[in-house]
Amino acid sequence: MPLIPSGIVTFAAAISQVSLALFVTASTIGKAPALLLEVYSVNEMTQWTTNGKVILGLCSVFLLVISLKNGNNYI
Length: 75
Description:
The protein has helices at 6-15, 20-47, 50-69. It has 75 residues and is an all-alpha fold. It is flat, with a radius of gyration of 18 Å. The model has no long low-confidence stretch (mean pLDDT 83).
């Protein structure tokens, strides 16, 4: 399943005959899971809980691997 950037989906909906109510409903349903995950992660990190430390550590390792893979050795 190819990933389509949200900007393209928004543009397509803007030029189509989709009603405003349907667009708002679909956008809310589509963005809710990512928003909830982001809110949870940020809350855990700012409260400095064990889960927050794990999330921050995993994000750090992920960014390090991506940086090294792309040849951006900022370390």
